[in-house]
């Protein structure tokens, strides 16, 4: 039995029942049983709410992120768990430190199969899209008209410094990483982009700009650093798309079966019929 | 540094605005009349000119320092503050480097005083932590004469501060960009495995190896071949263990996540003073949040983050040290462990306020039998300490 506690406003009340640790159920159909149970209220400061909010953050970035718009959750206000986590959180656009208002999201973790990525639905109260069209167009034109291909490395550097001209490419890496992090998240992960080893602009013939990124992700739960190679495209009209992604395992981590070498993520999503919506 | 030029003082004041930002409780410079402002500036100028050239003022606390610079700084702290600062080597790392603390407190003719322990940098990549230990020492020394409470605490207590516990790991992270995110110690792997290093914060004799660890030596939460396999963990265990009667509080500093973690790392084991730890912890995170508006959360590790075992925090509580906390400083994932240098000051300011609340409570409980955390008292202390911090920071330019 669960004790459901009522949360008023922004005051938190600690749950009295011990948290049930997440575990892959061995009984098929357990998801259906759990769906019939009442919503278990989550403490917004506890990790199940934090991890679900991080997944919602990745989802928002895949939808709305750009070199000038990079989103992060600034505080979970309310959270509940049935099969899915329902949460309310304040959203912030991080490149300008701009408050974007309150979002409500549902994050469905597939407990029966951890390899299935979480499903997210999300609506936000404030004006979701920041007006970045001028900067995006400016950057796009500069890169299109440049005589040489751009590249960069070690972002941020050891002391956390980022050259201002590199900042949009840091944000771009963060947004592109969100596609991977969204896919790779489960109830036992809390993923962030830790570092861009390097990125290189690639030749393209069409309107999209293309970049190869070598990125390090950090999982707070295992404390591991995960190396990914991404091929991504961007244009102001086309948005950010990850074309190819490859995990670079060190031999000793080869047993982590759920982290797979993937290619053509965008195509895969189209084939599956994207279930995520806002 | 041009200490005594009026223009520099004025420029600095203009940039700083000399107002305390954040929770809206601040005082704006513009509130003072122009005569008042002139007087204040004159006072600051006089303070600037009278400032000595001591290391606590001249060292760059808002930059990250490699180990040799930190060691040199520690040496200077001792030399420039006789009777107040001493140091001791209390262990040796795997690669045979000294592990050293600074002991801050008024020397009471060699009498063994009650004490508070703080260690930083148990995880190599968490650079803001050693930066905070250095900041903490600086703040305590600067406030010794100006802050009555700090003065009282330095008389009654000794503070053992280890700026870098995992010296080998910290030095490794300074080699180049590819080593920057190393976390563990640098000990050689066991025979059956090929990667170096043990997670020092899983290696302590506290429910060792039971939960939240990896047995794979290549993983970042590898707990070691056995408890206390690592000399760094042994060093803390021996020193603190021998003084567990005197040590009132154990603080261990990490990044990131903006959390204050209480014992224990096991989801079904609770400290007997859980309520008190929570009450003091809540006061601490409130104080931290009020400095720059950053949200910190308090709770046990299994609640806020993940279960774990073998942590130094758990071990300290288990041997009877009543107050034991892990600080996880900024940020929440945007920069992660690579916190930019322009955030060192605000991160340290808010962490200092949190530590201050805990230390003051622990001190007052021991010496005045006082266990209330009055809101008024805290606000007054906060105002005093922020004013002092603003002044002292300005003196550093």
TrEMBL record, chain A:
Protein name per its UniProtKB record: Cystatin LXN-type domain-containing protein
Keywords, sorted A to Z: Protease inhibitor, Repeat
Domain Cystatin LXN-type residues, every copy: 38-135, 151-256
Entry's Gene Ontology cellular component terms: extracellular space
Gene that this polypeptide is encoded by: LXN
Family matches, as PANTHER family: LATEXIN (PTHR28591)
GO molecular function terms listed in the Swiss-Prot or TrEMBL record: metalloendopeptidase inhibitor activity
PROSITE patterns to which the protein is assigned, alphabetical: CYSTATIN_LXN
Keyword Protein biosynthesis among UniProt keywords: no
Family under the similarity heading: Belongs to the protease inhibitor I47 (latexin) family.
InterPro entries according to UniProt: CYSTATIN_LXN, Cystatin_sf, Latexin
SUPFAM superfamilies (alphabetical): Cystatin/monellin
The keyword Repeat is assigned to this record: yes
């Amino acid at each position: 039995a669960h004790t459901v506690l009522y949360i008023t406003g922004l005051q938190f009340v600690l749950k009295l029942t011990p948290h049930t640790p997440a575990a892959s159920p061995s009984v098929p159909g357990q998801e259906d049983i759990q769906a019939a149970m009442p919503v278990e209220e989550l403490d917004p400061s506890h990790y199940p709410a934090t991890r679900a909010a991080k997944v919602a953050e990745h989802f928002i970035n895949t939808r709305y992120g750009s070199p000038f718009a990079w989103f992060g959750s600034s505080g979970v206000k309310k959270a509940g768990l049935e099969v899915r986590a329902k949460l309310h959180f304040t959203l912030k656009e991080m490149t300008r430190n701009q408050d974007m208002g309150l979002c409500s999201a549902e994050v469905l973790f597939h407990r029966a199969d951890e390899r299935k990525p979480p499903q997210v639905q999300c609506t936000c109260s404030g004006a979701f899209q920041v007006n970045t069209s001028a900067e995006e167009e400016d950057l796009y034109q500069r890169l299109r008209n440049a005589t040489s291909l751009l590249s960069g490395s070690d972002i941020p550097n050891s002391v956390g410094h980022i050259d201002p001209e590199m900042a949009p490419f840091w944000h771009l890496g963060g947004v592109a990483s969100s596609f991977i992090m969204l896919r790779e998240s489960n109830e036992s992960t809390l993923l962030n982009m830790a570092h861009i080893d390097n990125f290189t602009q690639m030749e393209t013939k069409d309107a999209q700009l293309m970049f190869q990124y070598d990125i390090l992700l950090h999982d707070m739960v295992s404390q591991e650093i995960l190396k990914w190679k991404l091929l991504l495209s961007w244009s102001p009209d086309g948005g950010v798309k990850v074309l190819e992604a490859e995990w670079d395992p060190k031999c000793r981590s080869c047993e982590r079966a759920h982290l797979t070498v993937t290619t053509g993520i965008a195509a895969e999503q189209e084939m599956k019929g994207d279930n995520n919506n806002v | 540094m041009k200490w005594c030029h009026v223009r520099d003082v004025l420029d600095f004041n203009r940039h700083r605005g000399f107002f305390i930002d954040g929770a809206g409780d601040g005082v704006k410079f513009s509130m003072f009349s122009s005569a008042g402002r002139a007087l204040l500036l004159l006072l600051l100028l006089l303070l600037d000119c009278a400032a000595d050239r001591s290391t606590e003022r001249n060292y760059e606390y808002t930059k990250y320092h490699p180990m040799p610079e930190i060691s040199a700084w520690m040496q200077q702290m001792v030399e420039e503050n006789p009777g107040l600062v001493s140091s001791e080597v209390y262990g040796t790392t795997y690669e045979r480097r000294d592990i050293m603390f600074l002991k801050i407190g008024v020397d009471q003719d060699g009498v063994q005083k009650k004490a508070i322990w703080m260690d930083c940098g148990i995880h190599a990549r968490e650079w803001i932590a050693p930066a905070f230990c250095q900041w903490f020492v600086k703040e305590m020394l600067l406030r010794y004469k100006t802050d009555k409470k700090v003065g009282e605490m330095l008389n009654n207590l000794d503070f053992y501060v280890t700026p870098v516990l995992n010296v080998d790991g910290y030095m490794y992270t300074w080699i180049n960009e590819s080593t920057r995110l190393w976390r563990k110690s640098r000990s050689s792997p066991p025979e059956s495995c090929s990667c170096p290093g043990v997670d020092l914060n899983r290696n302590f004799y506290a429910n060792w190896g039971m939960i939240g660890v990896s047995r794979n030596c290549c993983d970042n939460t590898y707990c070691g071949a056995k408890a206390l396999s690592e000399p760094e963990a042994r060093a803390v265990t021996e020193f603190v263990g021998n003084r567990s009667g005197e040590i009132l509080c154990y603080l261990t500093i990490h990044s990131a996540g903006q959390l204050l973690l209480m014992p224990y790392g096991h989801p079904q084991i609770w400290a007997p003073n859980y309520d008190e730890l929570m009450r003091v912890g809540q006061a601490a995170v409130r104080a931290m949040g009020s400095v720059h508006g950053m949200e910190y959360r308090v709770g046990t590790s299994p609640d806020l983050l993940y279960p774990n075992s073998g942590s130094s925090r758990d071990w300290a509580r288990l041997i009877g040290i009543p107050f034991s906390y892990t600080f996880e400083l900024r940020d929440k994932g945007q920069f992660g462990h690579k916190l930019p240098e322009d955030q060192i000051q605000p991160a340290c300011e808010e962490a200092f306020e949190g530590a201050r609340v805990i230390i003051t409570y622990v001190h007052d409980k021991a010496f005045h039998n006082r266990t209330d955390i009055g809101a008024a008292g805290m606000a007054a202390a906060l105002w005093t300490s922020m004013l002092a911090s603003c002044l002292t920071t300005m003196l550093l330019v």
